[in-house]
Write a sequence for this structure.
């Protein structure tokens, strides 16, 4: 009795390889945007701590801009921050979108929201 072999065909390997390649491409292209988001999250926490120490809103925006230059934050600036004081603590929020080119005219649009609320 003959048993039929099970496995993936060469065309199936091409499709799976192309799919995995596309997923990796998106992942690699998204890394700079994610690194910038994590840098922004870290910077606004440090700046909010400065605000809790008594710094003015103008000083907080300048501090964000200085720290942003060091960490290569180019998508937003200190003017884009929403700074409020809630229950004696400075809360900084920012919402922005980042367009990540993938291939030719195909892009990925990522919406980010960073906040210091609940720290």
């Amino acid at each position: 009795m003959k048993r039929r072999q099970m496995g993936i065909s060469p065309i199936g390997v091409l499709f799976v390889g192309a799919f995995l390649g596309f997923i990796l491409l998106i992942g690699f292209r998204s890394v700079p945007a994610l690194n910038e988001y994590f840098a922004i999250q870290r910077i606004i926490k440090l700046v909010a701590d400065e605000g809790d120490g008594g710094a003015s809103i103008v000083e907080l925006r300048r501090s964000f801009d200085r720290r942003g230059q060091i960490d290569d934050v180019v998508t937003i600036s200190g003017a884009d921050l929403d700074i409020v004081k809630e229950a004696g603590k400075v809360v900084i929020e920012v919402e922005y979108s980042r367009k990540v080119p993938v291939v030719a005219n195909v892009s990925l649009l990522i919406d980010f929201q960073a906040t210091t609320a609940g720290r």
About this structure: The first helix runs from residue 10 to 52. Residues 34-115 form one domain. The beta strands are 82-86, 89-103, 106-115.
